[in-house]
Design brief:
The protein is of the alpha/beta class and 332 residues long. It has two domains: 7-193, 3-Layer(aba) Sandwich (Rossmann fold), CATH 3.40.50; 218-312, Rossmann fold, CATH 3.40.50. Helices cover 26% and strands 20% of the residues. The protein is built from eight helices and 13 strands. It has helices spanning 37-42, 67-81, 98-109, 131-142, 206-211, 231-239, 257-268, 300-312, and strands spanning 7-14, 52-60, 86-92, 114-118, 149-154, 157-159, 165-166, 175-176, 184-187, 190-193, 220-224, 244-249, 272-277. The chain has an eight-stranded mixed sheet, with helices on both faces. The chain is globular and about 60 Å long. Bound molecules: succinic acid (SIN). Succinic acid is lined by residues 14-16, 32, 61-63, 94-96, 119, 121.
């Protein structure tokens, strides 16, 4: 549904933006997901009096993100977006898996109203907490129909759901936007747009993913290729019930020979195996004869979500092509 309303709904899921520490100078030894979303919003004077609603969907450190929270979030988001009076939705989240949730929501809902994820690198109790400004910027974007689709805003920078990368463990300026660059900026409450989000319908399996018991979602694991990699890791995951595997390869998606051999054993056992790149940017280009398929530009974490969805539509991607509408996302 396109936007006609003026209300912004803020869905809280936890993270450092809702974190507290014993001291205002402590930005490392804090507890994430301690404050409720109402308290996080109440700390931003400029939001008082605005047409907002808060809903606590989860209260988690996003390192522990799982299918149950994703499903609850996806359902809550779909419900809020369907309300005519809602202009857009903000999601407060941890930074650690922000890029995974952004990609998940993009592929599962492909919303036609603004859905703006935001987070913080410093807890709410920090001397110079970054959460309040990030939240204010997120509400500004969520109210503006020109910013429809899933995006994230941090430090005044707006990132698309395919391009968001957490690239630093603790610095305030922790995010990058891959090869694609930023969607735009928010400066003193004024958004500036550099490029549009590529419109794509949701994945064909999205509705099933949201409605089906999340314990029945296809099990897809990620393995990394590295010096001394052991095929036994893949064998163990297959024995433990993996239905799909993403191998984060070196460089342009190349695999240690021990993993390549184990990948063939996994495929022979009916497990879908794709390769990605462990490099932060670039993805995988090309499909040499005999190489495992890949989802091109997708990161290993994005490829995991895509493979889960493809498996849910009933296909091992390189054997039974599924119905992924965006050719950029098909495994090659
Ligand atoms: C989390 O991801 O929930 C904790 C770390 C953070 O938000 O920066």
């Amino acid at each position: 549904m396109a936007s006609t309303g003026s209300k912004v709904v803020i869905l809280g899921t936890g993270g450092t933006i809702a974190g507290t520490a014993a001291s205002a100078t402590d930005s490392i030894g804090y507890r994430a997901a301690s404050l409720g979303v109402e308290a996080v919003v109440a700390a931003v004077p400029a939001l008082q009096g605005q047409a907002l609603e808060c809903l606590q969907v989860a209260q988690t450190d996003s390192k522990d993100m799982d299918a149950a929270v994703w499903q609850a979030l996806g359902r809550a988001l779909a419900q809020q977006l369907a309300r005519a009076e809602v202009a857009g939705v903000v999601i407060t989240h941890g930074t650690d898996t922000l890029e995974e949730t952004a990609y998940f929501l993009h592929r599962v809902l492909a919303p036609r109203k603004p859905v703006v994820l935001t987070a913080a690198m410093r807890p709410a109790t920090a001397l110079m907490a970054d959460g309040p400004q990030n939240l204010l910027d997120a509400v500004t974007l969520a109210r503006d129909a020109a910013w429809c689709g899933v995006q994230a805003v941090l430090g005044g920078r707006v990132y698309g759901p395919l391009d968001l990368r957490k690239r630093h463990g603790w610095q305030l300026d922790a995010f990058g936007s891959g090869d694609a660059g930023l969607l735009g900026l928010v400066q003193d409450g004024v958004p500036r747009r550099f490029r549009d989000l590529r419109a794509a319908p949701p994945h064909a399996a999205a509705a099933r993913l949201l409605s089906q018991d999340e314990r029945d979602w296809p099990v897809v694991d990620i393995v990394s290729s590295h010096a001394g990699a052991r095929g036994a890791v893949i064998d163990a995951l297959v024995a433990a019930g993996a239905m799909g595997l993403v191998i984060a390869g070196t460089g342009n998606g190349s695999l240690h020979q021990a993993l390549a051999q184990a990948a063939e054993r996994a495929r022979a056992a009916g497990v879908a195996v794709v390769r990605a790149s462990r490099c932060l940017d670039g993805g995988v280009v090309g499909a040499p004869a005999g190489a495992l398929p890949s989802y091109g530009a997708l990161t290993p974490w994005q490829a995991r979500i895509e493979l889960m969805l493809d498996l849910m539509s009933g296909g091992v991607p390189d054997v039974v092509p599924g119905a992924v509408p965006d050719p950029g996302l098909r495994p090659r």
